[in-house]
Write a structure and sequence with these properties.
The structure is a single chain. The chain is an alpha/beta fold and 257 residues long. The strands form two sheets. Strands 4-3-2-5-6-9-8 form a seven-stranded mixed beta sheet. Helix 7 links the parallel strand 5 and strand 6. Helix 1 packs across helix 2 and helix 1 packs across helix 4. It is globular and about 45 Å long.
Length: 257
């Protein structure tokens, strides 16, 4: 029986649990002390939310997205970065160069929980909003190159919703870049067997970036990185996961328009 989550925003505790437990290891592949502190503050039971297969995939995604975001910030020093569907994430603190404008965006229930953890500043804004509505886009500085980062968001979305989100992005920003992670249908089936969300279904997964490009003709694929290429270095258990042909479809992709 899958573990029942009471609401979609509770899924943020899965990624927080993974980042915290991974960062607390002696040979950690992530450096996220804030997640460790936050998990302790919330009294989070890591065993309740953490699962080996999900853990390894989320760690791979976090490493790849952090690197891609840092590389973009390095190349576009005064850009505007939107962390869409941010959950309990603190990506800003990891990649900030002292010049970027940063916007954390999530649904009102999630942003209410973040109020006691993160606070807005001169270059950092906390915004209530949905990836499927354009209201939050008016607050993003239009005189800076925009980057939209969405880690784990596609796990919740059907193809129709992903297409709607992309349309909002390309309609709201004349040019821009986006960094997304997409789990394979196989990986999503494993996720669904482990966790169930009350009255909500997980997404179906994405097999290739061609599926995304067909959703919006303005998009171009700049680069993509397979989880499996990174997970080959994680240890024998992770390499065993990567030997499954379908698992090679999970990836982080960078698009531009």
């Amino acid at each position: 029986m899958p573990f029942l989550l009471n609401s979609p925003d509770e899924t943020s505790l899965i990624s927080l649990s993974v980042r915290a437990s991974e960062s607390g290891r002696k040979k950690s592949r992530l450096d996220d002390s804030q997640s460790v502190s936050l998990a302790q503050k919330l009294g989070l039971d890591g065993k309740r939310y953490d699962n080996f297969f999900v853990h390894e995939n989320m760690v791979a995604s976090a490493i790849l997205i952090e690197k891609a975001t840092r590389d973009f910030v390095g190349a576009h020093g005064e850009c505007a970065v939107v962390n869409l569907g941010c959950g309990y994430d603190n990506l800003f603190g990891k990649v900030d160069n002292g010049k970027i404008f940063w916007y954390d965006v999530d649904l009102p229930e999630m942003m209410e929980k973040r109020k006691n953890i993160f606070s807005s500043g001169e270059r950092f804004m906390e915004l209530e909003g949905s990836a499927l509505e354009s209201g939050w886009t008016v607050f993003v500085a239009k005189d800076r190159e925009p980057l939209i980062v969405a880690q784990g968001l596609s796990l919740h979305f059907s193809a129709k919703k992903i297409s709607a989100m992309l349309q909002i992005l390309t309609d709201s920003f004349s040019t821009g870049h986006a960094i997304f992670d997409f789990w394979s249908p196989f990986a999503m089936s494993r996720l669904e067997k482990k966790y169930a969300i009350r009255d909500v279904r997980w997404g179906q997964g994405i097999k290739s970036c061609d599926e995304i490009l067909k959703m919006n003709e303005k998009l171009e694929l700049e680069s993509e990185y397979l989880f499996s290429d990174l997970m080959q270095n994680f240890g024998w258990k992770s390499r065993r996961i990567c030997r499954r042909k379908n698992e090679k479809d999970s990836r982080v992709a960078i698009f531009r328009w």
